[in-house]
Design goal:
40% helix, binds NADP nicotinamide-adenine-dinucleotide phosphate
């Protein structure tokens, strides 16, 4: 099979960087989207990797990044919608601007990105969409995760909706739903040591597996946790 091409948003740090490193090791060709591409001087995959500008708050950037990817590689086989933000405010404290930002970055931009890449995902015959959702897309655990949870519930529904929309064309979509993962996002919020959280590299290994599974082994959601909760 020709080397497949994956687009990964927010690939400069955290979970996105771990996914990029893992997919490069597995022979994927990479198109990495981030707000400051000039900051990534040694991308996984070396000079074969495309590093592009992508800002979820700029509604033109999904199409521009997709176009640059097609120009470079002539194909897109997977979109990993990873970039995301968390605003630790309760739904009462937060204002419309906070809510707008969370939905723009966590929901609307990933959908625009998938739409832009759609013809190429279909052409692949085994297109893949992986969304970094959260366990906050499945339950509201605390007051200050409530606003974030609203956006992640929407991201979970979006991923299922993409799974339905692409099924007949061979596109498979999966929502990865982690609890705390040891990145800047969780370390700034949680009262537990990074080594007691899920590691970004382990999330990356799940992504690698999802991309390799055939169309006949679709996985809709993967909840993943470092602590025991009632259901997850
Ligand atoms: N860490 C966790 O515990 C956890 C748990 C469940 C789900 N998640 C989800 O996993 C994904 C990755 O999170 P992470 O833990 O790796 O967080 P992180 O370390 O805070 O990294 C967030 C990434 O998103 C990017 N980003 C934020 N706003 C953006 C924007 N407007 N345009 C483009 N990129 C933007 C950041 O870019 P900059 O470097 O430019 O800021 C960075 O690359 C997110 O969707 C998050 O909600 C994380």
């Amino acid at each position: 099979m020709a080397e497949r091409v994956a687009m990964i948003s927010g690939a400069n740090r955290g979970i996105g960087a771990a996914i990029a490193a893992h997919l490069a090791e597995r022979g994927w060709r990479l198109s990495l989207g981030m707000r400051k591409p000039q900051g990534l001087t040694a991308p996984p995959g070396g000079s074969a990797t495309l590093v592009s500008h992508y800002d979820a708050e700029d509604i033109a950037s999904e199409a521009a990044w997709t176009e640059a990817t097609v120009q470079r590689f002539g194909r897109i086989d997977a979109v990993i919608a990873n970039a995301g933000v968390m605003i630790p405010k309760t739904v009462i404290e937060a204002d419309d601007e906070d809510l707008g930002l969370l939905f723009q970055v966590n929901v609307r931009s990933p959908l625009r990105l998938v739409r832009a890449a759609w013809p190429w995902l279909v052409r692949s015959g085994r297109g893949r969409v992986v969304t970094l959702v959260s366990l906050s897309g499945k339950r509201v655990k605390s007051a200050r995760s409530g606003l974030y949870a609203m956006s992640k519930f929407a991201a979970l529904a979006m991923t299922h909706a993409i799974r339905h929309a692409g099924w007949d064309q061979g596109v498979r979509a999966t929502a990865i739903c982690p609890g705390f993962v040891a990145t800047d996002m969780a370390i700034s919020l949680a009262d537990r040591a990074p080594e007691d959280m899920t590691q970004p590299g382990d999330v990356a290994r799940l992504v690698g597996m999802l991309l390799d599974l055939p169309n006949t082994a679709s996985v809709a959601e993967i909840p993943i946790n470092s602590t025991l909760e009632e259901m997850v």
